[in-house]
Every structure is written in C-alpha cells, then in structure tokens.
Amino acid sequence: MNEKRLTLYRRKHLGYIFQQYNLIPNLNIKENVEIGAYLSDNPLDTDEILKTLGLYEHRHKLPNQLSGGQQQRTAIGRAIIKNPDILLCDEPTGALDYKTSKDILKLISDVNKKFGNTVVMVTHNDAIKNMADRVIKLRDGMIRKNYINENKIAAEDLDW
Predict the structure, then answer these.
(1) Mean pLDDT over all residues of the chain?
(2) Environment class of residue 128 by beta-carbon count within 10 Å: exposed (0-12), middle (13-18) or buried (19+)?
(3) How far apart are CA 20 and CA 141, in angstroms?
(4) Residue 154 region, left (φ>0) first, then alpha (ψ -120 to 50), else beta?
(5) For the purposes of burial, counting CB atoms within 10 Å of the CB of 29, is it exposed (0-12), middle (13-18) or buried (19 or more)?
(6) Smallest Cα–Cα separation from 32: which of 53, 9, 61?
(7) For the chain, how far is it from start to end, CA to CA, in angstroms?
(8) pLDDT, tens digit, for every residue of 14-60?
(9) Do 102 and 132 form a contact (C-beta atoms < 8 A)?
(10) CA separation for the pair 72, 55 (Å, rounded)
(11) How far is CA 6 from CA 10, 43, 120, 144, in A?
C-alpha cells in the first residue's frame, strides 16, 4: 500500500487515543471533539458522544478548566466521533489516578459496546488484560502470547 492509500486508510478506519491528550487549548471541549468529524463520511453525533462521555455540561469549557479524566474523555470523544472501525489506545490510563483509570477503562468498554468498534489497547498494566476479549503479549517486538480470554471481567471489577 502506498503512502497516500495508507493515509486514507488511517483517516477512514482508525481512531487514536493517546496517553497525552493532545487537546487544542484555545478550543472548547465540543470543538475539540468535533475537530475529528471532518475526517469521516459518517461521523457520530457530537452531542450524543458528549452525553455518553459525561461531558455535555462541560462542552463550552476549555481544556485547562477540566480534570485529567475529563480531558482524557474529551480525547476519547475526538477519537470516536469519526466512527472508526478500529480504536487504537496508547496507554489511555497512563497519566491517570487509579479511580479515574478504572472509569476510563469502563468508558472505553462502553464505547466499544455502544458503537461496535474494535479496540486495540497498548498498556504496561497487566491487570487490564482481564477485561479483553483477546490478549496479545509482546516482548522485544515478538509475539510471546496470543490467546482468547475465557474469563473476561468488567472494567469496574479490575484491581491492581
């Protein structure tokens, strides 16, 4: 696949949630979420996403007026508004406290169920594997384990 086709594939099919939120500081929360919509032929409804993420009442605030968890939820909204087939999550709880981390994991799980996308999560937190359908463990760039999780537990029941 050439670079142009690869770029179009990423734009059309992938959503990204980064460890660092990468929010635009002079845009309010609604605008930060909406900025991803132009990348899609079939974006989701902004207000529905904000309500799902518990951010609707904060939609006119700037990022620096929110907690870390609210900023992370805004980043999740930006990633899912374009209605991606695959949601790539790079350490989505890495910069958050324990309670907020569990809230974000539950939210990602809820988003997966509600919008039907595939979630690929990269994490160093071994406990998170317990909420996954499939676990692929890498070490030194090599797949060391690849299995279906037969004993999946809910995000809110995770403990570490």
Answers:
(1) 93
(2) buried
(3) 23
(4) beta
(5) buried
(6) 61
(7) 41
(8) 999 988 899 999 999 999 999 989 888 889 999 999 998 899 999 99
(9) no
(10) 11
(11) 6, 20, 18, 28
Tokens at residue 85, please? 């087939």
Six token digits for residue 48: 């529905």
Q: Which of 93, 79, 111 is nearest to 14 (CA)?
A: 79
3-state secondary structure of 160: coil
In the three-class reduction of DSSP (H, G, I as helix; E, B as strand; rest coil), residue 17 is classed as strand
As a residue count, the chain comes to: 160
Domain boundaries, the chain: 3-157
Architecture per CATH, 3-157 = 3-Layer(aba) Sandwich (3.40)
Count of C-beta atoms within a 10 Å radius of residue 88 = 18
| Residue 1 identity (one-letter amino acid) | M
Pull the structure tokens for residue 109: 């799980």
Task: Locate 135 and state its tokens.
Answer: 């676990």
